[in-house]
Amino acid sequence: MHVLVIGSGAREHALLLALQRDPQVDALSIAPGNAGTAALATTYDVDITSGEAVAQLATEIGADLVVIGPEVPLVLGVSDAVRAAGVACFGPTGAAARIEGSKAFAKDVMTAAGVRTALSEVVDNPAHLDAALDRFGPPAGNRAWVVKDDGLAAGKGVVVTDDRTLARAHAAGLLDDGHPVLLESFLDGPEVSLFCVVDGDSVVPLLPAQDFKRVGDGDTGPNTGGMGAYAPLPWLPAEITAAIVEDIVKPVAAELVRRDCAFSGLLYAGLAITPDGPSVVEFNCRFGDPETQAVLALLESPLGQLLHAAATGRLAEFPELRWRDGAAVTVVVAAENYPARPRIGDVIVGAEGEKVLHAGTRRNEDGTIVSCGGRVLSVVGVGDDLTAACADCYTTVEQIRLPGSHFRRDIGQAAAQGRIRL
Ligand code: GLY
């Protein structure tokens, strides 16, 4: 099977590594990729937001399966174009990808499916902002304001704060830039990312994971696209994971079928485990980054065959997934000044090997690898338990040299020390 992966992050690097372990995968291609993925797959430079360009590439290279990593091409309907060209595609149609691309659509689907989620309100008129802020946040009984960019913002458009001035400034800035603002009620409880491979009504969950969105240790500083993750979650009882699948993901998948926009691809449920039970923070229409780097490190089942089964309507026949025992951790090495305006162009040393997944990297003509994005690398460690996986991961992180870079030192620690309780 020849698989073409679309994307350029550490998530796509992790997908390639897992696909390479599948005995039925004999060729890998990627567009546009990065300096690390070039060692695993033939690299093509196409506009990945153009369905026509991606479908043409898939046809020209004889791909048997296209796997679309990022949300933007999915929301733009690139998978529709690939399927129309007769190539199997892992990734939802543009209509189904609205579960991530349109907050209003997602809330409507969740309400119809009877799924618990945060209360929300869209503000698109600055004159209505103060009254809306009064309906959310601490005066209304919430612990904090949750202010989001209503469009796709790669996690960076989110501010969670108990400081009304900060909440207002973020919302006003978004409105000034012409972006509608989404205010949500704060969901109190540890967060879980549960990725499910979905094909219509069939839902196959992967291991639950947790990511770390704030830039600093102890969940301080601004939100980022994600600074690290670990899987599985020792503090999350299996019954809660099962309940998330049965009571949340399956009803949402069924509701999408009912609306004639069946989901085929990776449905990512982001949840908070509140005192009242799991509640949805968001749905995404693709693998999460950086959780994928940890989750796929433990997958023993053949990923290419799994994704191909989902893409061709045969997921229900796929054997139960097999996982390596133990735990996996990923730590993101970010460029100086990320998430604001990251410095780029710095030479990276020590970024070789299967434990170092590349994101914002490119190779110079002289062969050196330099940074070209905010989240530069994603280092993965595995071990018999979370403590061992953290040790494995941080040993590699410490060997990397990237001037001005920073990373969190507490990924997975609270869970490893038994400090997360429900
Ligand atoms: N880990 C957050 C995301 O992928 O959106």
Automatic annotation (TrEMBL):
HAMAP family: GARS
Catalyzed chemical reaction(s): 5-phospho-beta-D-ribosylamine + glycine + ATP = N(1)-(5-phospho-beta-D-ribosyl)glycinamide + ADP + phosphate + H(+)
One example of a Gene Ontology biological process annotation: purine nucleobase biosynthetic process
Gene that specifies this protein: purD
Cofactor requirements of the protein: Mn(2+); Mg(2+)
Tree of life domain: Bacteria
InterPro entries attached to this UniProt entry: ATP-grasp, ATP_grasp_subdomain_1, PreATP-grasp_dom_sf, PRibGlycinamid_synth_ATP-grasp, PRibGlycinamide_synth, PRibGlycinamide_synth_C-dom, PRibGlycinamide_synth_C_sf, PRibGlycinamide_synth_CS
Protein name as it appears in the record: Phosphoribosylamine--glycine ligase
